[in-house]
Design brief:
Blueprint (H helix, E strand, L loop, with lengths): L7 E2 L6 E2 L2 E2 L4 H10 L9 E8 L5 E7 L5 E6 L5 H15 L4 H15 L5 H9 L11 E7 L4 H14 L3 E11 L2 E8 L26 E5 L8 H7 L1 E4 L3 H7 L7 E6 L3 E8 L4 E2 L4 E4 L2 E4 L24 E10 L18 E3 L3 H11 L4
Parallel strand pairs: 6-7, 7-8, 10-12
Antiparallel strand pairs: 1-2, 3-8, 4-5, 5-6, 8-9, 10-18, 11-17, 12-13, 13-17, 14-17, 15-16
Length: about 375
Amino acid sequence: MPLEVGLWRVDGAEPVRVATQRMPLEDRLERLIEADPTILGRPLLVIGRQVQTPFGKVVDLLGVDGEGTLHVLELKRDRTPRDVVAQILDYGSWVQGLTNDEVREIHAEYVRKRGTGEAFDGAFADRFGVSPPEELNTAHTLTVVASEMDPATERIVTYLSAGYGVPLNVLFFRYFEDGDHHYLARTWLIDEVIAAPPSGGAKSRGKQEPWNGQDWYVAFGEDTVRNWDDARHHGFVSAGGGKQYSRNLQNLQPGARIFTHIPTAGYVGVGIVMGKAEPFDEAELTVDGELRPLSSLELRGTYQHDFPQDDPEDRREWIVPVSWEAAVPRDQAFWKKDLFANQNTACKLRSRHTIEEVSLHFKIDK
C-alpha cells in the first residue's frame, strides 16, 4: 500500500489539517505534468501528448529521460483501475518497438502541434545539458497516474512489477485546497528503489540513428604527446597509449569522412581519410608533393609514450593521414551543447543533427 500523504497548516497556535479534495479536472493534471515533468520526481523531456497509436488508442503523455529511456504516463480518468492497467500494458507493447527515428518523429509532431519548441537534439540538450545518447528507447517504463486505486489493482501492479519485472508503477497524486491556495503531493505505490528496472524491450534494431556509411567521429585528445596544430598543418589524426585508444582509430578506412572533436573544446576539422592507420615511426605524409616520414617533420608533439620496454601492450601512437576540407585552430573550435561527443577515439557518427550543424558552420557539403 502507498504511504498516505497528509498536509497541515501550522501558521496558528494549533495545526490544522488541510482536507484532501478531488482533482477538479484530470486534464489539468496532465497539463501540469506537461508544463513541469519534475513534479513526477524525475527529470523528463515530454516528447508527446495525446500520442496516436497505430491501433487507434491515444497515449496521454510520452517522455524520455537523460538515458534515452521512454516513459509512458497514463492518467486513470474515469476508467476502472483494471482497465487503465490493461491499457498501459498495451501501450508498452507498442512503445518497446519504437525506433530512434520514430521517437524523433513523435517529438517533431508534438512541436508542430504546439507551434513552438526546438528540434529533438536541442530540446534534449536544454533539458539534460548533454546531447542525446546514440541509442534511444533501449528501455521503457509504464506509469499510471491516479488519485486512488482499488486494492485488487494494487495487488496486480505489485505482482507484475515485483514478480515478473514488468516496469509498471502507480503514481498517486493528492490534491489539497486551502482557501485560495491549491497544492499537489505525490507518492508511489511501489518504492522506486525496489520497483522493477526499466524494460529493455526489443533490443538494438532501429534504436540507433541510421549510419550513412561514410561519416565518423574522431576525438583528438591534445596533450604533450599529440598536438592539434601538427595535425591541422600536416594533415592527420592520431591516438595511442594502448589498444583501447588506437584500435578504434584503425577502423578508419580510406575515403571515410571524419568530424574531428577536441574534448572540452569542440569540433575543429572535417576531412577525408587518405590512407590506413600506421604507427608513428612508420607513417609517411605527402608534403609539397613529396612523400616524407612524419618523424622527419617539425612537430610540437612527441608522439611517443613513456612505458617500460618489456610492456607487452602496444602503446605506440598511430597515425591516419587526412585531407582536410576544413580545419581551424583550437581557439576557433565549434561547439553547441546539443552536438554529439563521445569518449571513444573513433566511432561511427550517426547524429544527423551534428553532421548538419558542423557542416553548415564550416561551410562544407553535407
